[in-house]
Design a protein that fits this description.
single chain, binds cytidine-5'-triphosphate, 7 helices, eight-stranded mixed β-sheet, binds magnesium ion, 12 strands, alpha/beta, Spore Coat Polysaccharide Biosynthesis Protein SpsA, Chain A
């Protein structure tokens, strides 16, 4: 089993409000991108890591990832997340037939178990998505009023890595770009083709780091963290 992992790290991190792109911020002595990349480096199924980073950070990212034992390719990303994923997809070797995993570098606490589960499910079913149960009651809102309460049992919060057969992901992306649709994850593009997406259990630690509070939360989970 061998997979290519695309780590998208080209966002600006506006909600974080730091002076550097989010993927390069420190979490317990390691930038988020390096932490995420190390998990894929440790995953037996991953043969190539493609890191997609902001323009101007390519050299810095190459240096950062030079200690990985898995092959690494670093390229610059695009304006939207899906533009960055597309740049990553262009780096997948011609004729590659294994699964492609797409992961947010902003989820640095991803673990090998999840990576391997997604890879296996993507190989078996073509498309795999890690999902967490939704704990809050979710309302549909319009103009400041509640329109509807959704059945929580039917909802799931999507995480990454999301895994796909390479040809399926390429077809889904071609269709999304052709139809000028903006998608916030790969599964959305694949769902539009009517393809089945297999759900695997996500991980509570694999939360996306979006705000300074999220970073503080992740810090508090690291070994040796001082608890108040
Ligand atoms: N991403 C990317 N290219 C973009 C936008 C986002 O590679 N043009 C990546 C981010 O680097 C991140 C992941 O997609 O790892 C999820 O995006 P998000 O959490 O929204 O990160 P940012 O876009 O950087 O943050 P913000 O939306 O607050 O600016
Ligand atoms: Mg964003």
């Amino acid at each position: 089993m061998s997979a290519v992992a695309i780590l998208v790290a080209a966002g600006r991190g506006e909600r974080m409000g730091a002076d550097r792109p989010k993927a390069f911020l420190d979490l317990g002595g390691q930038p988020l991108l390096l932490r995420a990349a190390r998990a894929f480096d440790d995953a037996p199924s991953v043969q190539l890591v493609v890191a997609v980073v902001p323009e101007g950070e390519v050299e810095a990212a190459r240096g950062l990832l030079s200690s990985l034992t898995t092959s690494v390719t670093v390229v610059s990303g695009g304006r939207r997340r899906q533009d960055s994923v597309l740049e990553g997809l262009k780096q997948v070797p011609d004729g590659f037939e294994g699964p492609v995993l797409v992961h947010d570098a902003a989820r640095p606490l991803v673990d090998v178990r999840l990576i391997e589960d997604v890879t296996r499910a993507a190989e078996e079913d073509g498309a795999a998505l890690p999902v967490l149960p939704v704990v809050d009651t979710i309302k549909r809102l319009r103009e400041g009023r509640v329109v509807e309460t959704l059945d929580r049992e039917e909802l799931g919060a999507a995480q990454t890595p999301q895994g796909f057969r390479f040809d399926l992901l390429v077809s889904a992306y071609e269709a999304a770009f052709r139809d000028r649709v903006t998608v916030t994850d790969e599964a959305t593009a694949v769902e539009r083709l009517g393809a089945r997406v297999q759900v695997v259990p996500g991980s509570p630690l694999n939360r996306k780091i979006t705000t300074p509070e999220d970073l503080a939360w992740a810090e508090s989970l690291l070994p040796g963290a001082v608890r108040a």
